[in-house]
């Protein structure tokens, strides 16, 4: 294994990188800590290093456990505290921009460019709760979409979601032709050893699926798979007190109330209502919510899944 610090262009920032394998095959980039408070992903990435026999690697794994060190060491919600930007929204970055843009630019030019696949690790942030699920790239060529879906389907989760976004580290990697996924599991307040172990097993399954680890690690799924093509992200129209009515992983019917925003006098300001039958992917679980922020994320079922 090789370890080194990647120098972020035109800054004093350095990011730790671990490389495993002999390079005789495909290369998979694994990133974590793009959101510094999503600690489950960071711990899982660090523990993965000691969970893989390097002699079994067919190709190379490039692992970056903390892409946003400023956010990690200050436990900052979603953003890089120095410029208050969401690192996952600034790819491909700018070498002459703010620190978030410089980090994105360096990761893309120095590491994504060397890779054939990209796995981006996330979890619930400090204000969220999330069910285990996986996004796969959906705004690229059909070949990359299909390979990304195969990667997502290999994890032991019940829901995968085809992304419709063009922002994000993994989406930009897919735009460059690299099959890519984003994994959601655990979070800032859910980092038990069981959750970490499940996360590591997920990663080992994916690596076996893409041929970087032996096929013996391709363990059969325990859950039937729901493939979401239509995800919704209703925003708060008001700042106020947020009362979610469902839980991550809960199935709801069309027209059900998913949550309510009230003012300090308990007057209802906004009711978030579902626009079809589906499942809660993640939601805000803090009492206060700000106007313009996401309240909940949910996926709508296909007609055949409703029947």
Automatic annotation (TrEMBL):
Its cofactor is Zn(2+). Residues 25-209 form the Succinylglutamate desuccinylase/Aspartoacylase catalytic domain. Signal peptide: none annotated. Keywords: Hydrolase, Metal-binding, Zinc. SUPFAM superfamilies: Zn-dependent exopeptidases. Pfam families: AstE_AspA_cat (PF24827). GO terms for molecular function: hydrolase activity, acting on carbon-nitrogen (but not peptide) bonds, in linear amides; hydrolase activity, acting on ester bonds; metal ion binding. This is Succinylglutamate desuccinylase/Aspartoacylase catalytic domain-containing protein. It comes from Marinisporobacter balticus. The lineage of its organism: Bacteria, Bacillati, Bacillota, Clostridia, Peptostreptococcales.
């Amino acid at each position: 294994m090789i370890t080194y610090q990647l120098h972020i262009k035109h800054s004093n920032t350095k990011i730790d990188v671990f490389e495993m394998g002999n390079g005789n095959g495909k290369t998979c980039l694994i990133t974590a800590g793009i959101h510094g408070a999503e600690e489950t992903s960071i711990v899982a990435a660090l523990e993965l290093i000691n969970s893989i026999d390097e002699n079994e690697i067919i190709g190379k794994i490039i692992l970056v456990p903390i892409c946003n060190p400023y956010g990690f060491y200050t436990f900052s919600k979603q953003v890089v505290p120095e410029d208050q930007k969401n690192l996952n929204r600034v790819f491909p970055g700018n070498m002459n921009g703010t620190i978030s843009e410089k980090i994105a630019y360096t990761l893309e030019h120095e590491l994504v460019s060397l890779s054939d696949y990209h796995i981006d690790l996330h979890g619930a942030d400090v204000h969220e709760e999330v069910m285990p699920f996986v996004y796969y790239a959906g705004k690229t060529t059909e070949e990359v979409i299909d390979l990304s879906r195969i990667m997502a389907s290999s994890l032991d989760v019940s829901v995968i979601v085809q992304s419709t976004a063009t922002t994000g580290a993994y989406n930009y990697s897919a735009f460059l032709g690299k099959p890519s996924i984003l994994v959601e599991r655990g979070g800032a307040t859910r980092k038990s050893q069981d959750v970490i172990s499940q996360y590591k097993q997920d990663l080992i399954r994916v690596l076996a699926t893409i041929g970087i680890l032996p096929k013996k690690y391709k363990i059969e799924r325990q859950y039937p798979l729901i493939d979401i093509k239509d995800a919704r992200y209703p925003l708060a129209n008001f700042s106020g007190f947020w009362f979610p009515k469902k839980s991550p992983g809960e199935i709801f019917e069309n027209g059900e109330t998913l949550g309510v925003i009230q003012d300090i006098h308990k007057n209802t300001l906004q009711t978030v209502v579902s626009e079809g039958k589906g499942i809660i992917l993640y939601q805000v679980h803090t009492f206060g919510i700000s106007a313009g922020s996401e309240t909940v994320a949910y996926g709508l079922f296909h007609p055949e899944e409703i029947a």
